[in-house]
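User: Hey, my collaborator sent me this sequence without any context and asked if I could get a structure. I don't really work with proteins. Can you help?
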Amino acid sequence: MAKVAFIGLGVMGFPMAGHLAAKGGHALTVFNRTRARADAWVAKFGGKAADTPALAARDAEIVFSCVGDDPDLREVTLGANGAFGAMAKDAIFVDHTTASAKIARELAAEAKRRGFEFLDAPVSGGQAGAENGALTVMVGGDARAFERARPVVSHFARAVTLMGPSGAGQLTKMVNQICVAGVLQGLAEGIAFGLKAGLDMKLALEVITKGAATSWQMENRGKTMVDDKFDFGFAVDWMRKDLRICMETARETGADLTVTQAIDGYYREVQAMGGGRWDTSSLIRRLRKG
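Assistant: No problem. I've predicted the 3D structure and written it out in structure-token form, which is a compact way to encode the shape of the chain:
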């Protein structure tokens, strides 16, 4: 049983921290910018809530974070009341935010300078994966720190893999998001095509999920796309944030993301339709309008 802190109790962080308490039996101190959210977590799982990231991190062996974007991550780590100012020597900071590889490397270097370790560890699996303790975690950082953290991370993950040095976890998550966006656009076009052609698309999906076209998105989002339901899962606003990071990195590396850039534009159209909080499978909405 480790002394653990968790910073950021959104739709992902709340259940992830819950698994650490319920399945791992770890003593948790939590922080969330909206205090009521932290108090609700404590009421459900025990532990205690802290007023700042620094107070949450004090004396913790492992500190987890799961926030929104690079600026949020910088604030909870290096801000005036940031966790890095209170981290114990030889502790480990594990960040599950989907952020840039650049900030991951920056924070890893700063952590090393202060005498502790930083792992960039973005996740895949969405809200359902977090709630079911079945996330896929891709990690960048020191191998020894990874081995120390892995048993604790495993309480909310089905797979935890070290991808390479600092930043490698974030780069792997970028690959994941590029692939997800492409699959969803193909699925949206295929379903819209089938509907216009008069097919029973739910039956068609049952057939093609048994063949080469199958994917997690088809199996879990195909029928809800037919039903025009998008009130669950990973929001368009967050996907656009992730794709922005992908395209910024592509410009730095010289990678060609022509299709991804086009799909990002399609998501912009969905936002203009009022769908910023719709699930990412809502790409089909722009094909079905009118």
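In plain terms: Strands lie at 3-7, 27-31, 48-49, 62-65, 92-95, 117-120, 123-124, 135-140, 157-164. You can pass these tokens on to your collaborator as they are.
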